[in-house]
C-alpha cells in the first residue's frame, strides 16, 4: 500500500484509479507512475490488468483509438507522459477536443518509443504527421478519416503518414478507409511503395478511386515487383473502381511479370463483362491464389466464364463470389485440383445446381471449405449432398444454412447428439458409435448443445 492511498487493490478493482490519482486525488506523479510500473512488473498474465487500466484511462479522457501494446522497454517514459497529461489538464480544466488530440498524440508517441512488440496501429481521425515509424516494429497501419473531417486535415494526415513510412523497414500493410485518394496522394503513395523494401499490401476501402488516380495505380502495377496484395473494396452502393480501372487490373493479371497473389474487388459492380474479362485473365495467370469478387453483379454469363477459367487455372486456392447471381460450378469442382475454399453463398443456385455440386463431391479431392448459404437448394439437393459426403474424404467445412434442408435428417451424428439428453445413452457411448459409422467428414454445430456438452463432444472427438 502506498502512503498516498493509491494501492494495487483500489487500482485493480476500479480500473479507473489511474485517472483519479492523476486528476482528482492530487497524488504525486512519481508515486502514481511507480505504483503502475510495479503492478505491471509483478503481473504474470501478460500484464493484462495494468494495460487494461491504461486503456480505461484513455477511454476516460474520451480518446477514441485502438492501440495494441504488449510491453515497455523503458519504465522512465511513463512519468514523462503522465506529467504532460497532468499539466495539460490543469491548464484547460476540461478535456477539449484539442486537448484530447494532444493527449492521444503523446500516448501514441510513447507507445512508438517504448513498444518492443507493437505491430498494429489503427488511426481514426488522427493527424499522422506527428509520428515517426523509422525505428518501430509496426507492420500494419489502418487510417480512417470520416467524411466530416475537413479536406485540409485529410491532406495533412495522409501526406504525413505516407512521408513517415518511407524508411520503415518493417511496415508491410497500409489500409485507407473512407478516404478519397486523389492524384497527388496516389503519386506520393506509389513513390513510398517504390522506395520501401517491406511494403507489400495496399487497401483502399469504401471510397471510389477516380479514373486518373486509378490509372496511376494500374500503371504502377505493370512494373510492380513488391506489392503482392491489393484490396479495392466498395461499400453497398459505393463502387470503388471504375470500368477503366477494372479493365486495367485484368490486363495486369495477364502479365507474365505480375506478382499479385491476393486481389479483393468486393462490392464494385464490375458486371458480366468484367467477370468475363477477369476469367480470361485467370486462364493465363499462374500466381494469384486469393480472389474476392463479392457482390459484383457478375451474372450467369460471367459465372460461366469463371467456371471455365477455373478448369484451366492451377494456382487459385480461394474464391469468393457471394451475391453475384452466377450459375453452376459443378463441372469446375470436378476438374479443378487446387481450389480449397469456395464461397458461392446467396446466388440462388436452386435444386439442380445443388445436385450437380453433390455429384462433384464424389470426384473433387482438393476442396476443404464450401459455403452454400441462401441458395434455395431444397431437401432433395440436401439428401444428394449428404450421400456424396460419405464418399468425400477432404471436405472439412460445409455451410448449408437457409437452403430449406432438414438438418435432422441430413447428418445422423447431429440427430444422435441432439437426442442424448432424452435418453440414457452417454455422450461417450454415442460418440463411439458416431466415429465408427462415420465414413466422411463430420461437421457439427456445437452451439445447439450448450458449452458443457459441446466441450465434452470436442474432447471425445479428439481422442
From TrEMBL:
It comes from the Eukaryota. Pfam families: LRR_6. InterPro entries: Leu-rich_rpt, LRR-containing, LRR_dom_sf. This is Uncharacterized protein. It comes from Gigaspora rosea.
Amino acid at each position: 500500500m502506498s502512503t498516498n492511498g493509491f494501492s494495487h487493490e483500489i487500482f485493480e478493482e476500479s480500473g479507473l484509479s489511474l485517472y483519479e490519482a492523476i486528476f482528482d486525488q492530487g497524488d504525486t506523479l512519481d508515486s502514481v507512475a511507480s505504483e503502475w510500473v510495479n503492478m505491471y512488473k509483478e503481473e504474470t498474465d501478460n500484464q493484462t490488468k495494468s494495460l487494461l487500466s491504461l486503456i480505461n484511462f484513455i477511454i476516460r479522457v474520451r480518446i477514441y483509438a485502438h492501440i495494441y501494446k504488449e510491453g515497455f522497454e523503458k519504465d522512465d517514459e511513463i512519468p514523462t507522459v503522465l506529467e504532460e497529461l497532468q499539466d495539460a489538464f490543469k491548464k484547460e480544466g476540461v478535456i477539449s477536443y484539442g486537448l484530447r488530440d494532444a493527449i492521444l498524440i503523446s500516448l501514441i508517441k510513447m507507445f512508438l518509443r517504448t513498444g518492443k512488440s507493437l505491430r498494429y496501429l489503427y488511426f481514426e481521425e488522427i493527424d499522422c504527421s506527428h509520428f515517426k515509424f523509422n525505428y518501430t516494429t509496426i507492420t500494419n497501419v489502418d487510417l480512417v478519416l470520416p467524411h466530416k473531417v475537413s479536406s485540409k486535415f485529410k491532406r495533412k494526415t495522409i501526406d504525413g503518414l505516407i512521408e513517415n513510412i518511407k524508411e520503415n523497414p518493417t511496415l508491410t500493410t497500409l489500409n485507407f478507409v473512407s478516404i478519397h485518394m486523389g492524384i497527388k496522394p496516389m503519386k506520393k503513395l506509389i513513390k513510398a511503395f517504390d522506395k520501401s523494401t517491406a511494403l507489400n499490401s495496399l487497401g483502399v476501402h469504401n471510397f471510389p478511386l477516380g479514373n486518373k488516380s486509378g490509372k496511376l495505380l494500374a500503371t504502377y502495377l505493370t512494373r510492380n515487383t513488391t506489392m503482392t496484395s491489393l484490396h479495392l473494396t466498395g461499400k453497398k452502393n459505393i463502387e470503388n473502381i471504375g470500368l477503366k480501372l477494372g479493365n486495367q487490373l485484368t490486363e495486369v493479371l495477364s502479365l507474365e511479370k505480375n506478382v499479385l497473389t491476393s486481389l479483393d474487388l468486393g462490392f464494385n459492380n464490375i458486371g458480366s463483362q468484367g467477370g468475363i474479362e477477369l476469367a480470361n485473365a485467370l486462364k493465363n495467370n499462374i500466381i494469384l491464389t486469393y480472389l474476392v469478387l463479392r457482390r459484383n453483379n457478375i451474372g450467369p454469363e460471367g459465372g460461366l466464364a469463371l467456371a471455365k477459367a477455373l478448369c484451366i487455372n492451377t494456382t487459385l486456392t480461394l474464391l469468393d463470389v457471394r451475391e453475384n447471381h452466377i450459375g453452376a460450378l459443378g463441372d469446375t469442382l470436378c476438374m479443378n485440383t487446387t481450389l480449397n475454399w469456395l464461397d458461392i453463398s446467396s446466388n440462388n443456385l436452386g435444386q439442380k445446381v445443388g445436385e450437380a455440386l453433390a455429384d462433384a463431391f464424389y470426384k473433387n479431392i482438393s476442396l476443404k471449405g464450401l459455403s452454400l448459404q441462401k441458395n434455395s437448394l431444397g431437401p432433395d439437393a440436401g439428401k444428394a449432398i449428404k450421400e456424396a459426403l460419405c464418399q468425400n474424404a477432404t471436405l472439412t467445412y460445409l455451410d448449408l444454412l437457409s437452403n430449406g434442408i432438414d438438418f435432422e435428417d441430413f447428418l445422423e451424428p447431429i440427430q444422435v447428439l441432439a437426442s442424448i439428453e432424452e435418453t440414457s445413452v452417454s455422450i461417450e457411448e454415442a460418440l463411439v458409435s458416431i466415429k465408427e459409422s462415420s465414413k466422411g467428414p463430420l461437421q457439427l454445430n456445437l452451439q445447439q448443445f450448450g458449452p458443457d456438452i459441446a466441450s465434452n463432444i470436442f474432447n471425445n472427438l479428439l481422442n
